[in-house]
Structure formats: structure tokens, C-alpha cells
Specification:
This protein is an alpha/beta fold and about 150 residues long. The protein has 5 helices and 5 strands, in the order E-H-E-H-E-H-E-H-E-H.
Length: about 150
């Protein structure tokens, strides 16, 4: 696998919608995508995970992600704030971030890229198309792209 030195890639999904969490989990099932999927329910938990705070303090329990899939509209701390803080943090700024959201607003697209996202993907409403989209994202980011080492 490019960029992972033979180990399984770690993907962090920051998503508050349980249905979207489950669909993403299904997309990673059966080893279709060779990755360890970690899920947090909001932006605050995403930052705790990334900075290894609170219940994520143990690096064995919260390995540094190779890729972050980030919803924009989450409670507590939204995806834009998570992205901003990641890009301002020297330890986190190299981690690729894919904004994965229901938004199709031009303002959200422009703002996400100006904050440093690597890709902006609108979640399909269709279940099968959603799973297919996640698998394509995973295939691209985890099999084709060379990721930065930790």
C-alpha cells in the first residue's frame, strides 16, 4: 500500500449521523478496503482523537489516521472548525482530509478548499451509490495515492 509501509491504513470518520456511520462501515466491510475504520460522532471527539486527549490518549487505541473523512455539519464543533484546527497544527496538517457532506453549496465547497481540504465530496442519497462512493474514495486514497508517513 502506498504510503503506509505495509501496515493497514487508518481512516478516521467524523460523522454524527448513525445511518451514514453504518453505511461507511458497510463500505469497509469484508476487507474490500484494506483499512482500519475509526468513527467519532462529532468534531469535538475528532479533535480529541487527533490530539490524543481524553478517552483517546492511548496511541494504541487511537492510532494516527492516514485519512480523515469529515462531515461539515456536526454538533459541538463543526467540520470547518476541525479542518481549520488541523491545518493550523504542525502535527496534523499533513493528514489528508476529504470533506464528505450532504452540502452542495458553492460557499461550503470554496470555504472547505480555502481551509485546506484535499477533496470535497457530496454524499449521495442513494444507499448503494453512497457505499460505492466510499469505496471509490478508499480505493483512490488508500491504494493509488502515496500518503505521508507519520
Amino acid at each position: 500500500m502506498p504510503g503506509t509501509n505495509g501496515r493497514r491504513a487508518v481512516v478516521l470518520l467524523a460523522e454524527d449521523d448513525p445511518a451514514d456511520q453504518e453505511l461507511t462501515r458497510r463500505a469497509f466491510q469484508d476487507d474490500v478496503l484494506k483499512a482500519d475504520l475509526r468513527i467519532v460522532p462529532n468534531g469535538e471527539a475528532a479533535l480529541d482523537y487527533l490530539r490524543r486527549r481524553e478517552s483517546f490518549a492511548d496511541p494504541e487505541q487511537a492510532p494516527r489516521p492516514d485519512l480523515v473523512l469529515l462531515d461539515l455539519n456536526m454538533p459541538r464543533i463543526g467540520g470547518k472548525q476541525v479542518l481549520r484546527e488541523m491545518r493550523e497544527d504542525p502535527e496534523l496538517r499533513r493528514i489528508p482530509v476529504v470533506v464528505l457532506t450532504t452540502s452542495q453549496q458553492e460557499e461550503d465547497i470554496l470555504r472547505s478548499y480555502s481551509l485546506g481540504c484535499n477533496s470535497f465530496v457530496t454524499k449521495p442519497a442513494d444507499i448503494d451509490l453512497f457505499i460505492q462512493t466510499i469505496r471509490k474514495l478508499g480505493s483512490y486514497w488508500l491504494e493509488l495515492v502515496a500518503l505521508p508517513s507519520h
